[in-house]
Design goal:
alpha+beta, Immunoglobulin-like, C8orf32 fold, Jelly Rolls, 8-stranded mixed sheet, 5-stranded antiparallel sheet, 27 strands
């Protein structure tokens, strides 16, 4: 980014074709994968170390041991694989899952050495600009520390757009917080340093924390090195533990203690005395909850149905939907929802497009829609009507992966709590033929609850899935998939409704009248055709 660049200016660039980024201070490591999605004829990793340097490695058992050779002032570590078969990717693998065999080597060192290096990249900041100092003064007047943390986090997330220049020292050295705020742009380390600086001005103890998006919790098995990390978040230190905040996230609202954090597994705090990785735990009040209510009400003596849909999102589900609304827009989202119901019910008219209620303080988002279904019934007989219903939000949690016989774990949306209720207001004299039911299905990874019945002349079904863990290991896959199949059988429903006797008679008469009218029309057309032939 060059300020005041004009036509006719000459820009000269200088770069090396070999070498190491000096910002790493020699604390980086070397690694490679030894299989891929396609076959590999030959794969080699060769690393030279000083002859007297102790070396540490992480080597997947699928990779042959290194051939180590010492010659003069060097020691050579060479890994070789030939004619490597491809590893087929499987769908829905958990984030951070190591699909391919990996090797990682570095000089032997400690995480404390890496933390000491990282602290040199985060020196005391220069004075902040006047407008930011005014904002900080306003935040100081908020009722408690949690409210101040939430306000500062929201400002850094939403007012400073994500933009990174990953070149040279910019790969790891953050920009001065004052400049980040003035330019309203920065990447993860820039936004993290800005937020930590603001929190310090609010007398809130916080520090940067290095994490890995690519390796996640597997970073705990890597040899300590500066190059093990590719992301920076904020650790807020509290008496009861830590809050973990990601300034690069957007759409987050509500209390700081309720903010969702990715499953990084472990982090290296950039703080005095930091000597080892620490676990990144979920924030204490975080949740991911969705509650859907679909209500059908017959009109025109059952010839039509109105459908009212209310979807309430809390926690990270609200954050996700808020981002979806921002990027797609309410109008486009409303059209896609209408098309969704048209695929289910065919003739659908929108009576009320998507309406949005956003309670940012509670991080609660409510969406409502209303439709008219002109031909709603899946089956019509003289004495019965049938309506196909499905709790689609729950069905998504129960869907089967494409790869069923797996070598890799299956990711489960965790944490999540999804509840879907469907209601049908019965017209006078109509009755429900299915009968009440209840079913509970438990699995180590999730639970499923189903209940249906009749209350105040309203047919209803309720389904709920609560995730208990983030993934299912291959050894348990058969048991877990059977749980999904059993729940899916309950999820797809056909409600059969019996019409009152007089209504059934009216329907029969109407069907007979329609049949006679069709016969008379056919005879009339036939007679007209004969007259035309005679002419």
């Amino acid at each position: 980014m060059l300020d005041d660049l004009r036509r006719g200016d000459v820009v000269r660039l200088r770069y090396s074709v070999a070498g190491r980024n000096p910002i790493m201070a020699g604390l980086d490591g070397e690694g490679a994968v030894f299989a891929w999605s396609g076959p590999l004829l030959r794969r080699q990793l060769r690393v030279l170390f000083d002859s007297d340097v102790p070396v540490q490695e992480l080597r997947d058992p699928r990779v042959a041991a290194a051939r180590v050779r010492r010659q003069g002032e060097w020691q050579e570590w060479r890994y070789l694989a030939e004619n490597v078969a491809p590893i087929v990717a499987e769908d829905r693998e958990p984030a951070g899952f190591q699909r391919y065999p990996q090797v990682y080597v570095s000089e032997k060192r400690s995480w404390a050495q890496v933390a000491d290096w990282a602290r040199t990249l985060y020196p005391p900041p220069a004075p902040l600009p006047a407008d930011l100092r005014e904002r900080i003064a306003q935040w100081r007047r908020l009722p408690d520390a949690d409210a101040r943390i939430a306000a500062a986090l929201l400002a850094v997330q939403e007012d400073v757009r994500y933009f990174g220049l990953e070149i040279g020292e910019n790969t790891h050295r953050p920009v001065e917080p004052a400049l980040v705020w003035e330019q309203r742009r920065g990447d993860c380390k820039d936004k993290t340093r800005l937020l930590v600086t603001i929190l310090a001005a609010l007398d809130i103890a916080a520090n940067p924390a290095l994490v890995s998006l690519e390796d996640g919790r597997h970073i705990a098995g890597l040899p300590p090195s500066a190059s093990a990390f590719d992301h920076v978040i904020v650790q807020v230190r509290r008496d009861g533990g830590s809050l973990w905040l990601d300034p690069t996230s957007t759409g987050q609202r509500g209390a700081a203690a309720a903010q969702e954090i990715s499953d990084f597994g472990y982090a290296l705090p950039v703080a005095p005395g930091s000597a080892d990785l620490v676990a990144v735990a979920r924030n204490p009040a975080s949740l991911n909850r969705m509650r859907i209510v679909e209500r059908y009400e017959p009109q025109q003596q059952g010839a039509q149905l109105t459908l009212q849909v209310r979807a309430e999102y809390s926690g990270d589900a609200a954050n996700f939907m808020r981002r979806n609304l921002r990027y797609r827009g309410a109008e486009a989202l409303s059209r896609s929802y209408a098309d969704f119901y048209r695929r289910r019910h065919a003739e659908v008219e929108v009576l009320q497009p998507l309406q949005v209620e956003d309670d940012a303080a509670a991080n609660r988002l409510v969406l409502t829609e209303q439709y008219r279904l002109d031909r709603p019934w899946a089956q019509e007989t003289p004495g019965q009507r049938a309506l196909d219903v499905s709790a689609d939000s729950v069905a998504g949690m129960l869907s089967l992966p494409e790869t069923l016989k797996r070598k890799s774990p299956l990711a489960v949306p965790f944490p999540s709590d999804v509840e879907h209720r469907i209601e049908l207001q019965l017209p006078a004299g109509w009755s429900w033929s299915n009968g009440a039911a209840q079913r509970d299905l438990d699995d180590a990874a999730a639970s499923y609850r189903y209940r249906s019945g009749l209350e105040d002349n309203v047919v209803f079904s309720e389904e709920r899935v609560v995730a208990r863990q983030a993934s299912v290991e291959p050894a348990r896959m058969g048991e877990h998939l059977n749980w999904r199949r059993s729940a899916r059988e309950q999820n797809l429903q056909r409600w059969v409704l019996a019409l009152p006797a007089d209504k059934a008679d009216q329907v029969r008469k109407q069907r007979l009248n329609n049949l006679l009218r069709e016969v008379m029309d056919d005879n009339r057309k036939a007679a007209t055709g004969k007259n035309n032939d005679a002419d």
